[in-house]
């Protein structure tokens, strides 16, 4: 069965097949299902005693196609459809590499009921946006087509099933369509390229040497894609796109019987010739014949990538085998995960204490039904990678030699129990798209799904199995395998070779017992000092919007609270405070970067980073931090029983901040290691410099260099961030399933008990932002990545501030019109860019600084075409109104997007951020649907005329170093 977060494949990717429970641990007795029970459970639960999720209904057509349907009302009106084809890149022959993924593209190009290029506009007319609501993915083992149909009606569902059936069963695989689509796939390949992609490919070839997975990337090769022709592509389709290889999944606001009837109507007539062909063998990992059986280190590789930090990855590999997804099997997975969690907590403790590595982690994965592996990743802090690897191996060696304490295990068990309890509390909130995707995952890994209640019950009944001896035995099994393989990435040649890496992995190491966590008991909030005297409420009144109230305390803190039963078991907390980027000085950029990594970890009161972990053990708590234009923000998802302590945790950061040195030192190391990676690709350069340039080189948005980071000090960090924490207003948002009276009391004890805060200092920057001056020729930056990669950006300044929020919303419609045209021109017609995009930014907390930005990744020689095309589109939007159909294809997806989002309390509270200081935001919510959906072609033309004038455009190109002859340097300060 698939688990929820932390014990799930979403945490550890794919957990390994069953490791046999130690003989000393009794497995619960299991009674095989009768034939009648098996039939009632459905085909998914064959050979499984996992309690079926009875909300799913399973069926099979006479032609062999299987289906699963489920009623789900989240969000209301939406129906999620998934069509899974049990074939991916591992089903390809040598000459067919990339065909599974190419087919994914071709099915959207043209098919029985869709004309050439009609898929995207057709779905848009039905309210489904391209990329978000309609999409597909190809992996080594499957191809999945996805549709989230909003506002599903009998007519739109009928049409959708008709179109999807035609796509899967009768695509138009013509020579012309292949020649049109191959350049788009090659653009996608190019945009994925670079140093990171080279490392991924080298790792895949090394780890899975001798198996098809080593040579079967879903994207394919340039040669095989250029060599694709209609006969070959049709042959692949007819071989693998067969009813018995397909599962249709429907989950949403529709009765299961109605979904099943649509599946039967549109897929029952699908007939194919010939007998099904069995999937090819995916092979097994094999140790070298001349290796040491006790320590079978096989293939190793050292890669020199000048712009990447050092990194070591090694894998202990075992053959993958299908399993019966039983309760005992899942209990084994639970113990495996506990073993990982204990090791990873120890590795993190070692790093925090000043180890020779920045981060290290152990995870177990099933990879593409090809290997069952235990993977270890290490990021050394310096050139002595052998020392970092030895330290990590020593932590693992101790875990292999000595059982953990029951106290350590109990700590991890408490963490997991919270993760399993939350889905039970929030089951009615699970969207149909999520449950449909979970079933796709289960099919791919050949397992089942279970209801959250069943998962929690199995876990709770399994607690007697979670003993030190059991965890020790499972740890030892995790680190045994047929072969160990490794890759070392280094920025400098000569630091190691394959032989030295093999030697470093082969030499025995003594266990490091110093990292065992002697004290893993949770710390109690009752033991913490009070924030202060409970504060006095000076105002408490409804806002007039829904059930939201505004609370004001004598110290100036204001809060918006909204108890609602719409999201059972969930409470969200946000704390906005201070001045955000406005609060920093021109030279503070290095400390801004460090603060986003180290402010929370630097602690509070008596709590350092380890104590912060312990105090939240077994609790649903969080501590996210973000820096915005004009405010800082803490945020967390919690629940009623933990809400008061969550508020204490946030308030204590203001009342008693702590300034531990190690988190700052670690953040410095991370920032320095990350910096060089920016130059490995155009997108990296944009990540580093675009915001800085679009704010007209405002030094606060500058990405600090390693030299600038090196000059920072813990004392400087404290000075900058203590000022940020100490000044300016505080706004607290609480919404969700909580007790109003108890929460008001908790607010009084925490935020109400804070000392009155002074206003922002007089030297705080004004509430405005600069935009760069228009450019006739683009600003040119360079990168050190592949010479066929470039990026181009063009932007027009707009505005900012709450008074213009209606216009800001209309601008989003304009940018969607722009996106559709740019996508059609640069992707569909020219094949020059895989995913060009246009977006609007309008900072509500500033009175200026917004922009409309169009960007694309492409080949260097296509950069001029991008600028010309973007300016032509902008000019045309200014010169003439769009058609009613074109505007409708933008408005309907936006209407559905807003309508779906507005079913969540989080949507409204996001809109209300800052409303305690700017009450106009309350009124702006009442017009949100109208602002996003009521417009005319003439209004769009007027908006374009206001902002998209050619003389206002600012341009940037990011080109490969060799194309310019200049060294790659960041934007000048």
UniProtKB/TrEMBL annotation:
Which positions carry the signal peptide feature in this UniProt record? 1-29
Offer one Pfam family short name for this entry.
Peptidase_M16
Indicate the segments forming the Peptidase M16 N-terminal domain, all copies: 78-214
InterPro entries per UniProt: Metalloenz_LuxS/M16, Pept_M16_N, Peptidase_M16, Peptidase_M16_C
Entry keywords, A to Z = Hydrolase, Metalloprotease, Protease, Signal, Zinc
Q: Where is the Peptidase M16 C-terminal domain?
A: 231-414, 730-892
> What family classification does the UniProt entry report for this protein?
Belongs to the peptidase M16 family.
> What protein am I looking at?
Insulinase family protein
